[in-house]
């Protein structure tokens, strides 16, 4: 999985809740633009700041959020983007120093509690936490993903979100369930069925609505928390 996609998943996981929110994304590069699109598609009200107007083209023509061109450290630019009414702010420019400065402004002056900051230098992560900021380190995400890919078989993968680690197992379908539907397979306490991995690598997601028929060679994708 590309590192920017991992960043987006973890950023979105940290800043969103069950309710729709007003979210400000600072930085409209590869990560910021995709995060903004994902949030908007999920029904959140999104505004985006970038110093270069051309960067907003990455949002696509169907993006229905607000875009503001200007220096993100400028208090008036932040106000124009609606920071005073935001429930959450994601600061995702490529500059670690700029990100920590903007995050402090948003948290201190505008009293936004849910501020998530992107960083690339793992050595700075502790400094971010000392300021009470949540951070996602792209370098650590890549290292973790590479380590998992190198050391774990395909039947067992682990994904870490903040302090929680999820294990994903691919379990062969027992012969007695061939030709039956996924919901007929007993589910153990503490486990969730993500979907089915078919021969050839295709995955069918268990959305709770469709009935997935099991065939020879299928594997059931199971997830559970790691102690």
From TrEMBL:
Q: Which Pfam families match?
A: TrkA_N (PF02254)
Provide the RCK N-terminal domain boundaries.
20-144
Which biological process annotations from GO are given for this protein?
potassium ion transport
Question: InterPro entries per the record?
Answer: NAD(P)-bd_dom_sf, RCK_N, Trk_Ktr_HKT_K-transport
This chain belongs to the protein called: TrkA N-terminal domain protein
Could you tell me which species this protein originates from? [Clostridium] leptum DSM 753
Taxonomic lineage of this organism? Bacteria, Bacillati, Bacillota, Clostridia, Eubacteriales
């Amino acid at each position: 999985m590309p590192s920017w996609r991992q960043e987006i998943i973890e950023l979105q996981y940290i800043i969103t809740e069950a309710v729709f929110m007003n979210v400000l994304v600072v930085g409209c590069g590869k990560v910021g633009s995709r995060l903004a699109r994902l949030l908007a598609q999920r029904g959140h009200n999104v505004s985006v700041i970038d110093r270069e107007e051309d960067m907003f083209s990455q949002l696509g023509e169907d993006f229905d959020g607000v875009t503001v061109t200007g220096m993100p450290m400028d208090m008036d630019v932040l106000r124009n983007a609606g920071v005073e009414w935001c429930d959450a702010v994601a600061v995702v420019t490529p500059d670690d120093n700029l990100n920590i400065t903007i995050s402090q402004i948003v948290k201190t002056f505008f009293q936004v509690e849910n501020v998530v900051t992107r960083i690339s230098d793992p050595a700075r992560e502790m400094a971010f936490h000392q300021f009470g900021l949540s951070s996602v380190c792209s370098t650590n995400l890549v290292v973790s993903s590479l380590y998992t890919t190198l050391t774990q078989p395909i039947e067992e993968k682990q994904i870490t979100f903040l302090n929680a680690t999820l294990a994903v197992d691919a379990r062969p379908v027992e012969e007695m369930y061939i030709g039956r539907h996924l919901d007929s397979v007993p589910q153990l306490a503490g486990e969730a069925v993500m979907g089915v991995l078919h021969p050839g690598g295709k995955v069918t997601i268990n959305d709770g609505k469709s009935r997935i028929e099991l065939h020879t060679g299928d594997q059931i994708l199971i997830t559970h928390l790691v102690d």
